[in-house]
Amino acid sequence: MNVKAIIALLLMDVKAIISLLLMNVKAIISLLLMNVKAIISLLLMNVKAIISLLLMNVKAIISLLLKNIIVAYEFKAIILLLLMDVKAIISLLLMNVKAIISLLLMNVKAIILLLLMDVKAIISLLLKNVKAIILLLLMDVKAIISLLLMNVKAIISLLLMNVKAIISLLLMNVKAIISLLLMDVKAIISLLLMDVKAIISLLLMDVKAIISLLLMDVKAIISLLLMDVK
Fold first, then answer.
1. Are 190 and 14 in contact (CB under 8 A)?
2. Is CB count within 10 Å lower at the N or C end of the chain?
3. 146-202 per-position pLDDT tens digit
4. What count of other Cβ atoms lies within 10 Å of the Cβ of residue 30?
């Protein structure tokens, strides 16, 4: 591709990225966290409730995702964040529609089935193991680790393809990424269930810190993302 074009698409303008990602702290907190009890209910409630939450009603989902209206919790802002300019987002994320469809689902009908089909079909398509999805949704730590990480080497080969490159790009340290993903059982529980202030601190930290973490130094990002261009 064109290096300058990639840089422009990914980095745009620093101030614009900051505004787009951080917007308003209170708004982000409201959108992501809403209510501690609600989060706990969302993550831990029983299987039928989760299925209902994910599938809801086809028309409602379409309205929520595809329409520029305020559905609930002032979604106008999130719609602007996710959709921005249609042409721009398509160019940045999809580049080539046929290519992305082939890469992700290989079949248009498959994506429709993935989003709308019945519970058994979703389970089969995503995990192919009923017990596994139940364990994943109900937070059995060992099951989650097994389901998400399975075989480290296999996942690295399949998703990352280039271990050194991805490690350098994301965390620069294998042990660090393992710690970040698995942490400690108690830490996971704390992460999911702790009080609002703790969650806010964990997710939002300090605005300046987030900016530093996400944007780092423009030159550094360019180097990390484009280092193999030559």
1. no
2. C
3. 444 444 444 444 444 444 444 444 444 444 444 444 444 444 444 444 444 444 444
4. 14
Count the Cβ atoms, other than its own, within 10 Å of residue 143.
Answer: 17
Place of tokens 């108690």: 186
**DSSP string across 115-171:** HHS-HHHHHHHHTS-HHHHHHHHTT-HHHHHHHHHS-HHHHIIIIIS-HHHHHHHHT
Length in residues, the chain: 230
pLDDT at 11 over 50: yes
Which contacts of 10-17 are long-range, i.e. CB under 8 A and separated by 24 or more positions? Answer: 10/92, 10/221, 10/225, 11/218, 11/221, 11/222, 14/215, 14/218, 17/214, 17/215
Find the DSSP H helices in the chain: 3-11, 14-22, 25-33, 36-44, 47-55, 58-66, 76-83, 86-89, 97-104, 108-116, 119-126, 130-137, 141-149, 152-155, 163-170, 174-182, 185-193, 196-204, 207-215, 218-226
Q: What digits encode the pLDDT tens for the residues 55-69?
A: 444 444 444 444 433
Give pLDDT, residue 135: 46
So what's the pLDDT on residue 227? 53
What pLDDT was estimated at residue 156?
43
